[in-house]
Design goal:
This protein is α+β, with helices and mostly antiparallel strands. It has three domains: 75 residues, no CATH class; 181 residues, Histidine kinase-like ATPase, C-terminal domain (Heat Shock Protein 90); 134 residues, CheA-289, Domain 4 (OB fold (Dihydrolipoamide Acetyltransferase, E2P)), CATH 2.40.50.180. 31% of the residues lie in helices and 31% in strands. It is built from ten helices and 20 strands. The protein has a five-stranded mixed β-sheet, with helices on one face. A five-stranded mixed β-barrel has the order 10-11-20-19-18. A hairpin with a 2-residue loop joins strand 14 and strand 15. Helix 1 packs antiparallel against helix 2 and helix 3 packs parallel to helix 4. The protein is globular, with a radius of gyration of 24 Å. It starts with a strand and ends with a helix.
Length: 403
Amino acid sequence: MAEEAEIAGESASGSALMRVSSGKISRLMDLLGELSLSVSETVNSPDLAGLDLANFDGAVHRLTMLVREVQDAATELRLVSVDEVFRRLRRMIREMERETGKQIELVVEGSDTLVDKLVSDRLYDPLLHVLRNSADHGLEPPEDRARAGKPAKGRITLSAAQVGSEVRIVVSDDGRGLNRDTILRKARERGMFGPDDEPEGAVLWKVIFEPGFSTAESVSTLSGRGVGMDVLNTTMKDLRGRIMVDSAPGQGTRVALHIPVSLAFLDCIILRQRTRLFAVPVEDIQEIVKPDTTEVLHVAADNGSEMMLLREVYVPVCRLEHFYAEMPERLPPLTDTVAIVFATHAGPIAVPVDEVLDRQQVVMKPLVGALAGIRASWGCALLGTGEVAVVLDCERLAAGGGR
């Protein structure tokens, strides 16, 4: 039976509800995407060049704004609350208590937060893996908690909130925290770090999302198979989301998932670097600047790193040529470029480009087949001109571009 979504509407008798299959809503979204592309293709048609069309620009603006309003309205139709997912997870806590012999209190916050139906459909399994790890590895047995001065019943908090154009879902516990020594030892055994490497916590915690990585000495029904967290990582990449992990010994672990509210349309700035086009989500851009000679600093390093001085703050420069093109013999000086400053969790980075072209609401398509290996990208954006732009992932750019 087709999945259905409830849509609220106003009628003569007051508020009413309809049930519409999610398949029909997805079909509507696809058609709106095609409509947006067709409008852009028509407006940018070379056949219009040189024609004297009175009032044409005003009509184009009104049409473009109308299409965007229809897209926004259709996007809202596919939003559902995360309460359905949270209710299913709440029921699993009793099973986890039986399996682990621990007392667990699940605190749920923000269950009325809205997310895209496509996101909601894929959240249950990865969130269940995080809860299982919190219950099995994070929370201590009652006797250990008593010795640590903690309540016998461990607490896991599951919360959701909309922050800007993202939904932030957090799973946190008040357990023992991640074991740095064990995780680092396992990572060294797998060749992820050298014997003398001492990575920062934010770097080290990422290894728990690698396929097959597990620190469990034995396999249980809840964990220890080395699968689960890598499923979460894969799902987040598919949903254009990212994962942040924070942990402190004896105080617990916090796993935060940052996911776009909607996956249908993406509001982007279109950039040109040499012959290539790139699209950047508007919310990722901190500012756009034109560097001058006083704002450029070349750092003496083996790789010739560059820094840009922006209001007394040194911002690392990330050249797209390192990711998407053959390196030219000589890179253009920063003063000949436009610098796009991205806000990332690792701090701001500056990406030089040749030109800022336009702001568009684009339809994004995933990269599949041979294109799936393109670095630091969410996918491709179909532009009204018929061209294709690579959608940049600023977080992976800041991390070096790895997928």
